[in-house]
Amino acid sequence: xxxxxxxxxxxxxxxDYIASGFKVHSVRENLSGMFxxxxxxxxxxxxQILTAEARKYLAAKLLEQTLKQEETPI
Amino acid sequence: MADLRIDLAGIKSPNPFWLxxxxxxxxxxxxxxxFEAGWGGAVWKTLGEPILNVSSRFAAVSFNGQRVAGFNxxxxxxxxxxxxxxNEILETKKRFPNHAIIASLMVxxxxxxxxxxxxxxxxxxxxxxxxxxxCPHGMAERGMGSASGQxxxxxxxxxxxxxxxxxxxxxxxxxxxxxxxxxxxxxxxRGGADAVSMINTINSLAGVDLDTWNTVPHVGGKGAxxxxxxxxxxxxxxxxxxxxxxxxxxxxxxxxxxGISNWRDAAxxxxxxxxxxxxxxxxxxxxxxxxxxMIDGLNNYLDGKGIxxxxxxxxxxxxxxxxxxxxxxxxxIVAQINNDVCINCNKCHIACEDTSxxxxxxxxxxxxxxxxxxxxxxxxxxxxAIVCPVDGAISMVERKSTxxxxxxxxxxxxxxxxxx
Lengths: 74, 420
Ligand SMILES: Cc1cc2nc3c(=O)[nH]c(=O)nc-3n(C[C@H](O)[C@H](O)[C@H](O)COP(=O)(O)O)c2cc1C
Ligand code: SF4
Ligand code: SF4
Description:
By secondary structure, chain A is of the alpha+beta class. Chain A has helices at residues 3-19, 52-71, and strands spanning 23-30, 33-40, 43-49. Chain A has one domain (3-69).
């Protein structure tokens, strides 16, 4: 798969998790790329992101999530 | 006609073009001819205890038929007694009272030696002093030039000694043979420098003769490292000027030197924070008359932009020079090929295929060879546009990102909240 197609695929996975109510809980970066832990109540999934484009995209989603949380009244 | 006069730390000159301290400013005869040709100022060939030179002294690097892409020398400072130089400075200043004459100085790092030479050169009416802490060869082996210019404490101390007695502005000329030039620039400012100038030459060996196995240049079969300058060093010099210009602790004017060959180079240095420029290699390659085109070109450029004074150009690009971590990761450009002007040399395809991201496709349309960039795979690296020999055949165009701007630093601070 081309880098571009792979990145589209990874971004779609990120979108799908978020659309189904998951939130990013933790992020870890190492030699193998980025590992994103999504949580939805007791459910927990880990997504490995390989492509640079999708890693940039994930950061944009983190920003969205952070801004939304700041907006949510306690 | 724009106003080309500059004022660099109180040193005034009719235009920003000065000859750098080097062979072109070796004598009164030369400096006077340079002023007649139009140069606004001259930094006299470095004065100090007269030295002995070797023969030969110069070598140049040609690149693909372009002669003097880089220039290498193993020449030292002046080999003429101080009094001879001072008489000629006096005479030149009398003939050209409105041109800037700056005395470049180099002595051993001792307070009384600096005091002595400063007093002597100021007595003949120079407009300023430039302390040569940059010469990388010969003098450095004797503890002078770049040997003291690489040690911030020595730069600070010697500048301070000069300032103890100097009545004219003091420019400290820095060596590029150091990892971070702002360290020595800051030291010069701490010592009281009124301005800094950069760059002196970069340690170099021009080449090795493949027939004789001698170094180039060689002195009877032996070589020693020299100093590199000319067009090849311009990007290095420009970065050093810019790094100093954006450093709040280097809050003095900058005289830009290094590879300046025409008005465009000069304008770039001014935009990046230099108040004036100094030229050596281009004058050695083409003669003093190049300054006419420099003056005309700069003047036309300023007129075209509606800028009244060259001083208004100084530093305009400095706020645009930042750290890598503050660049937007989500800014996107892609290459676009105009097949109407393309000559189908395929250099772009080869470059992208072999050394970038394999995204320039070859195809034929009505029997005609064509090229197209697959935008989704293009990383906007510029390589194809750089290697393309035809102006306008490849343009780099912006593609608005679907995600908001974010720098590396912003990203890292955001992600740090998610490290558990
Ligand atoms: C042959 C030669 C001799 C030089 N001598 C001196 C010198 O005596 N003092 C000094 O400060 N710089 C000296 N320089 C360095 C120049 O002043 C200047 O900093 C350097 O050449 C970079 O400018 P350019 O690229 O325009 O040549 C010399 C350079 C050359 C090529
Ligand atoms: S900009 Fe770089 S990646 Fe894009 S087509 Fe040109 S060489 Fe290839
Ligand atoms: S390098 Fe330029 S001229 Fe050559 S094929 Fe590519 S676009 Fe055409």
